[in-house]
Amino acid sequence: MKTMHESDSNRRQGAALVTMMIILLLVCLASAALVAFATQQSHATERIRDYMKAQAYAEAGINDAYNAIKTNFSAAGNAALYPSKEFEDGSYDVTVTVVGDDQASLVSVGECGDATITVKADVKNFGQGAAGSEAQPLDPYAYTWLVNGEMRMNGSSEFVGYLHANNNIDVNGSSSWGDPTNEVHASATVNAVYSGPCALYGDIRSPSISGSFSPGSAIETASPLVPIPTLDLTALYNIAVANGQVVSSQTISSDTIWTIPGGVKWVNGSLTVKSNRKLTWTGCIIATGSIDFKGQLHATRYLDYPTIVSRDSSITVSGTHTFNGLMYSGGDITFNGSGTCRGTIICGGNLRFNGSGARFSYDYCGPSAGGGETGEEADRVVITAWQK
Fold it and tell me: Cα dist. 72→80, 126, 129, 164, 226 in Å?
C-alpha cells in the first residue's frame, strides 16, 4: 500500500510533467509562429523588391520610347523602334498610341516576379513653334515670351507663338497677335487686361480677362505657373576662359563687330552700347550685371548657345534691333525700340514693351551645357503628363 507521502509525490511529478508538456507546446507554437512570421516577412520583402524593380522597368520603357520620338514625332507610329525588353528577372513592354497630329500616349508595363506595374505618359509635339496648339506647354523653351512677373505692352507689336506671364498681362497698345495661319496662345496666372485694340488669332487663358479683341477667344480658366529655368553657365564660362574671352565691364562707343573665338564672351560686370552706336555679333554674350542697348543691336545665334544673358540683373533694348536666339534675364527686360526678334525671351522679373512696330516670333532655343549641333529641330516632343 502506498503511503500518503508517495501519493503526493506522484501527483507532483504528474503535474510537473503536464506543465513541462504545456511549456514545450507553447515553445513549439511560438517557434512555429516566428518561423511563419519570418517567412512572411521574407515574402513581403521579395514582393516589395519585385514591385520596385517592376516600376523601374516600366519607367525605363517610357524613357526609351520617349527618346525614340522626342525629336522625330513621326516615329511614334513605328512600333519597331520601342520593342519589349527582357531583363534577368523581369521585362517591360511599351505601347505608343498616336492621338491626332501632334500628341501620343505612351504606356509601359513592367514586370518582375509576381509584380506588374503600368506607367503612362502623354506627350505633345511642340515643333515648328507649336502653331495651332492650345495646350499650355510645360517646357519653358516652348514660349516666344515667358515672364515671371508682369507682362506689359504699351506700344504696337506683333507676336507669333506662346506667351505666358506668371503674374498679369496688361496690354495698352495696339497689337496684332498671330494671323490665320500662325496663332498666338497667351496665358496669365493672375489676370489679363486688354485696354487697347488687339487683333488676336488664337486664345487668351487666365482666371480673369477683360478687354476687347477679335476674332480669337477668351477662356477664363486657371493658368498654372511655368517655372523659370535656371541656366547652368559653367560650361559656357569655361569656353570663354579657354579662348581668352572673359572681360570686365564694356561700353561700346563706336560701331563694333565682335568676332568671338569659341562663340562665348563673358563680361564680369555690365555691358552698354551708347546711343547711335551699333553692336553686331554671332555667338553668346553673358554679362553678370546689367545690359543696356541704347544703340542698335544685331545678334545671331551660334550653335545652341543662348545669344544674350544678363545673369543677375536686367536687359534694356532701346534702339532698333534684329535678334535671333535665346534672350535670358535674371531680372527685368524692357524694349523701347523697334525691330524683329526670332527665338525665345525668358524674363525672371517684369517685361515691358514700349516700342513700335516690333515683331516677335518663335524658334526653339533650349540651350545645351556648352555645345551642340547647328540647325533647328523639326520636332520637339515634350512630356505633358505622367501617371504611375
Answer: 14, 11, 15, 26, 25
Name the residue ranges covered by the structural domains of the chain.
46-125, 184-362
Instruction: Check if the beta carbon of residue 290 is closer than 8 Å to that of residue 273.
Output: no
CB atoms within 10 A of CB 77: 12
Are 168 and 188 a contacting pair, CB within 8 Å? yes
Indicate the Cα dihedral angle 98, 104, 107, 108, nearest 10°: 100
The H or E element that residue 194 is part of is strand 191-206
CA distances from residue 181 to 160, 177, 202, 275 in whole angstroms, order as listed? 10, 12, 10, 38
Average of per-residue pLDDT across 332-348: 91
What is the mean pLDDT of the segment spanning 129-149? Answer: 74
Least Cα distance to 227 among 169, 308, 311, 164 occurs for: 164
* pLDDT band at 32; cut points 50, 70, 90: low
Q: What is the pTM (predicted TM-score) of this model?
A: 0.63
Express each pLDDT in 33-67 by its tens digit. Answer: 666 555 565 566 778 888 888 888 888 888 888 88
Give the pLDDT of residue 18.
66
- Indicate whether 375 pLDDT > 60: no
Of the candidates 282, 276, 325, 331, the one whose C-alpha atom is nearest the C-alpha of residue 304 is: 325
Q: Hey, CA dihedral for 384, 123, 129, 67, is it positive or negative? A: positive
Q: How far apart are CA 366 and CA 139, in angstroms?
A: 9
pLDDT interval class at 267 (50, 70, 90): very high
CB 314 within 8 A of CB 332: yes
* Amino acid (one-letter) located at 280: T
Helix, strand, coil % over all residues of the chain, rounded to 5: 25, 45, 35
CA angle 239/333/190 to nearest 5° reads 120
Instruction: Tell me which CATH code domain 46-125 carries.
Output: 3.30.160
Residue 282: all three cell numbers together: 554671332
From residue 153, how far is each of 79, 194, 356, 366 by CA, in Å? Answer: 47, 10, 10, 25
pLDDT at 151: 93
Measured in Å, how far apart are the chain's first and last C-alpha atoms?
A: 84
Between CA 189 and CA 148 the distance in angstroms is 10
Q: How far apart are CA 106 and CA 64, in angstroms?
A: 11
